[in-house]
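Hi U.,

Before I forget, here's the chain from the pilot set. I'm dumping it here mostly so it's searchable later in email.
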Amino acid sequence: MEFFLDTADVDEIREIAAWGILDGVTTNPSLIKKSGRDFKTVVSEIAAICPGPISAEVTAMDTEGMISQGLALKDDLPGNVIIKVPCTPEGLAATKFLTSKGIDTNVTLVFSASQALMAAKAGATYVSPFIGRIDDTGADGMQLIAEIMQTWACYPEITTKVLAASIRHPTHVLSCMQLGAHTVTMPAKIFRQLMTHPLTDRGLDGFLKDWAEVEAAGNA
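Structure:
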C-alpha cells in the first residue's frame, strides 16, 4: 500500500518524509489556502521533498479550462506533479485528454463505485473516494471502498489505483489495508497515531531503565 500525506504544510511533509515511508502527497485548494502561501511555490517545495506523486488540483469547472490549467501546471511544476481533477463529466473529458498526452491524473471527490469506474475508463491514474465525508452523512464510507475493490476484481484490465481519501482515524487506514485499496492519503496526525502504541512506549521505558542500571553497575 502507498502512504500519501494530505497537507500543504511543508514542515509536516519534511517530518513524515524523514521516516522513509512517504510515497506521495495530496493537496487541494483548501489546504493551499490554509498554508497562506503561493500555490506553485508550495507545490514545488513539496515535490522537491517527496519524489512520489504530488497532486496539484485544477480550479476550472469546464473541460477546456481544466485542460489548460493541467497543461500549464505540468509545464511550470516539477515532473512528479500529477493533475487532480473533479469527478464530473467535464473532469472525465479533461482526464481523457490529459491521459492521452501522457499526464498522470487523480480524479477526486468520488462518492460511488460507478463514478470510480467511469474515471478509470477515462484513464485516471488514481481515483479518490472520500471515506470520511460519507461517514459524515451517516452512511459507511468503507462500504464504498469495498464496492470499488470488488468492481476492480471483476475487471483485471483496470490499472487505476484506488486512493482512499478523507481519512479520519487509524481504523480507516486498517480497513483500507484489509480491503486491498492501493493508496491512502491522510493528515500527519494519522501518521503519528499509526506509529504510536502504549506498549511500545512502555517497553522502551523498561529497556532504557534496565540499561541505565547496567551502566551504573559498570561504573561502580
